[in-house]
Amino acid sequence: MLALLLSAPLALCQTATMSARDYYNVLHEAGDLDRTADEYVCFYKGESNPDFFTFILSKLIRESMKAGGTFSKLTKAQQDAMKKDSLIERGYAKDIPFPDLQVMSKHGDSWVSDDRKLDKDGNFLREKLTVDWQTLRFKRSIKTYRADSTLIGEVRNFGKCEVILPSYH
User: Fold this and answer.
1) What gap in Å lies between CA 33 and CA 54, rounded to an integer?
2) How far is CA 105 from CA 13, 70, 152, in A?
3) What residues pair up with 52 in beta bridges, in sequence order?
4) Which of 30, 34, 105, 145 to pair with 164, CA 20 to 30 A apart?
5) What is the DSSP annotation of 55-118?
6) What residues are paired with 103 via a beta bridge?
7) Tens digits of per-residue pLDDT, 2-15?
8) Is residue 104 part of a domain?
9) Hey, is 38 helix, strand or coil?
10) Is residue 11, in this structure, part of any structural domain at all?
11) How many CB atoms lie within 10 A of CB 130?
């Protein structure tokens, strides 16, 4: 009996590691994904990264609004903003959504973020997402720059996206 009591805390510490897909499935089944960016879900290559992201293309929102008759009810400025092609993304660290949506602008065959300041010296980063729409494989690169726009470094990640199926919960 004493051995059982002593082993209980150890058993509690040995939890199974969840993959990004596991975290996504839990959120999806509970209906807790951000519905603003819910057309595609993307997982990084390999099982070691528990993070994932979801996104939607603004043209899908625009077409849906036009079909539903709500697009014409927007102000001219809102309509002009919606006419610009963009990608709206929500990142998740395990099962916790990042606090802000990221809006990326179309740049050739890719989507590019606005520059984000890193520090008081003016260094910044820029993200680029490229999706192969035939295979739904993606490449995400994050480049860091000095204030004078010289490149400091780049990190690349690869993975695969899939269409988010409707949740019935």
Assistant:
1) 9
2) 44, 23, 23
3) 43, 92
4) 105
5) EEEHHHHHHHHHHHT-GGGS-HHHHHHHHS-EEEEEEEETTEE-SS-EEEEEETTEEEPPPEE-
6) 88
7) 444 444 444 444 45
8) yes
9) coil
10) no
11) 16
For residue 101, give the nearest of 137, 58, 143 by alpha carbon. 58
Question: How many C-beta neighbours within 10 Å does residue 129 have?
Answer: 23
The dihedrals phi and psi of 72, each to the nearest 5 degrees, come to -65, -15
Phi-psi region of 31 (alpha: psi -120 to 50; beta: other; left: phi over 0): left
pLDDT tens-place string over residues 92-150: 999 999 999 999 999 999 999 999 999 999 999 999 999 999 999 999 999 999 999 99
108 falls within a domain: yes
- Domain extent, residue 125, equals 18-163
Q: Within 13 Å and on the Cβ side, how many CA atoms surround 55?
A: 25
**Location of structure tokens 């680029």:** 128
Both tokens of 62, joined, read 């625009």
H-helix or E-strand containing 8? helix 2-13
CA distance 157 to 39: 21
Q: Which of 155, 151, 130, 159 is nearest to 142 (CA)?
A: 155
CB-based contact 131:163 (threshold 8 Å): no
Q: How many domains does the chain have?
A: 1
Largest CA distance in the chain: 73
Residue 49 lies in a domain: yes
